[in-house]
Amino acid sequence: MFNHGRALSGWLPHNATDISDTDPTEENDMKKLALSALLGASLILPATLAEAKEIVIKFSHVVAENTPKGQMANKFRDLVNERLKGKVKVEVFPNAQLFGDKKVLEALLLGDVHMAAPSLSKFKKYTKKLQVFDLPFLFNDINAVDRFQKGPEGQKLLKSLESKGLIGLGYLHNGLKQLSAYKPLRVPADAAGQKFRIMSSDVLAAQFEAVKAHPVKKPFSEVFTLLGTHAIDGQENTWSNIYSKKFYEVQPYITESNHGLLDYMVVTSAEFWNGLPADIRAELEKALSEAVALGNRVALEKAKSDKQKIIDSGRSTVIQLKPEEVEQWRAVMKPVWKKFEGEIGADLIAAASAANK
Question: What is the DSSP pairing of strand 234-237 with strand 214-217?
C-alpha cells in the first residue's frame, strides 16, 4: 500500500509541517490535504503536457528542392525549426510526395497538410479574382508584379479565400513566361493553327484563342513527352521551367515574349492558422517573409542564368522581339482583359495595370 505519510513528507512545500511530527488528528487532516494536492496535480499534468506538445506543420509542394519554391520551403523549415525548437516543427514534402496541386487545397481543408504553394491558376474554384494574374501582358516586368502584390489590392487578394476556409500567407515568384515552338514565333500570325499546352485556366485558353491557336490543357508532368512526340506544337513557361524540364532540347525556338506570369501563393487552412497561438503565428509570419524573399531572389537569378544556359547549349534559338512585334502580340491579346472583366473586376485589373507606372 502506498505510504502517504512518508512518501509525501518530502514532496510537501518547505514551509508545510511534516506529517510525521503531528498528532493523529492533525496527521489525518494533513494526509487528506496532501492526497488532495497530489490528485489535483495529476489532473493538471496531462493538460500541461498537451499544451507543451510540439506543433507539426506539413508543407506540401510539387517541385524539386533546388527550385525557387523548393528553396523557399526548405528555408522556412530551417528558420522555424531553429527559432521555435520544441514548439513547432516544419516537415517539407517536395515533388508531390503527398499531393499534387489539384488535390492539395482539398487536403489543406481536411487537415491532411497544413501549408502549400500552388500556382495562382489553381485557385479558380475558390475565387475568380485571382485570374487577374493570368491576364496576358498585364505586367511589364517582375517589379510591377511586386508593386501590385505588395499593394493594398494584392494583399486583399490573399485574404479573399478566407470565406472558403483558406488563407493566403504570401506570394512567391517563378517568373515571366516565354513561348516555345517548333517554328519561329515573331508575330501573332505565326501561332495560328498551332497547339499549345496550357495550365487549366480559362484565361490562358482565351489568350491562345485570341491568336487563333489551339490551347490544350494538360498536366505539367506530361509536357516534355507531348513535345517530344509532337502531340503539341509548343508551350508557355518560365526560363527556369524551360531549362529544368529540358523543354529547350525538344523545342528549336523560344520567343522571349514575357507575355504572362507564373507565380505561386503560399496558403494554409484558416481553421489551422487561426487556431495557433498569436505569438506562434507572428514567428511563422516572420520566418515565411524571410523565406519568400530568398525564393524570389533565387527566381530572379535563375531566370537570368537558365536563359543563358539555354542560349549556350545551342539546342534552341532564343528570339528577341522588336518593340513593334511585342505591340502586335499585346494588341491581339489585350481584349482578353475585357472578356474576363466581369469575373475579375474592372477595378482590380486597373489596379494591377497601374503597377506598371
Answer: unpaired
Round to whole Å and give the CA distance between 244 and 86.
37
Backbone angles phi, psi at 208, to 5 degrees: -75, -30
Q: How far is CA 53 from CA 77, 85, 89, 93, 339, in A?
A: 18, 12, 11, 22, 51
Domain count, the chain: 1
Using only the alpha carbons of the chain, give its radius of gyration: 29
63, 117 Cβ separation under 8 angstroms: no
> If you count them, how many residues does the chain have?
357
* Span 69-118, pLDDT tens digits: 999 999 999 999 999 999 999 999 998 899 988 799 999 999 999 999 99
pLDDT at 77: 98
The per-residue pLDDT for 231 is 97
Q: Are strands 317-320 and 253-269 parallel, antiparallel or unpaired?
A: parallel
Q: Within 10 Å of residue 344's Cβ, how many Cβ atoms?
A: 22
Tens of pLDDT along 175-228?
999 999 999 999 999 999 999 999 989 999 999 999 999 999 998 889 999 999
Please choose, from the candidates 197, 302, 320, 188, the residue with its C-alpha nearest in 3D space to the C-alpha of residue 253: 320
C-beta of residue 169 within 8 angstroms of C-beta of residue 288: yes
Return left, alpha or beta for 190; rule: phi > 0 is left, psi -120 to 50 is alpha, else beta. alpha
**Is 244 in contact with 252 (CB distance < 8 Å)?**
no
CATH number at residue 343: 3.40.190.170
* Residue-number span of the structural domain to which 303 is assigned: 123-354
| C-alpha cell of residue 52 | 507543451
Query: Residue 288 and residue 79: Cα distance in Å, rounded?
Result: 9
In a domain, 295, yes or no: yes
Q: Establish if 110 belongs to a structural domain.
A: no
Cβ neighbours, 10 Å, residue 177 = 21
In a domain? residue 193: yes
